[in-house]
Amino acid sequence: MIAVWIVAAAFIIAGGLYGFPKLIKLVTCKGRVQGMISGTSFAPGAGDQPMRALYLSLHRS
After folding, report:
1. Is the separation of the CB atoms in 31 and 61 below 8 Å?
2. Cα–Cα distance, 59 to 35 (Å, whole number)
């Protein structure tokens, strides 16, 4: 039973070490991009999004 707890703790620690920096980056990212939609394409099998927009970035602040 102790081995199960050790394996569980190892997975929790590994998940935290991998996921915590990504969470911090997601929360602190406040950048904005200016640009224009340069075209569209069909996205079959995309669920609720039948079209994809092609975006041309002009400026990032």
Report:
1. yes
2. 7
User: Is there a contact between 20 and 3 (Cβ–Cβ < 8 Å)?
Assistant: no
CA distance linking residue 27 with residue 20, whole number of Å:
11
pLDDT given at position 51? 76
Please state, in angstroms and rounded to a whole number, the distance separating the CA atoms of residues 15 and 48.
30
pLDDT at 49: 67
- Hey, CA dihedral for 18, 20, 22, 25, is it positive or negative? negative
Percent of the chain with pLDDT over 90: 25
As given in the structure block, the two tokens for residue 59 are 């400026």
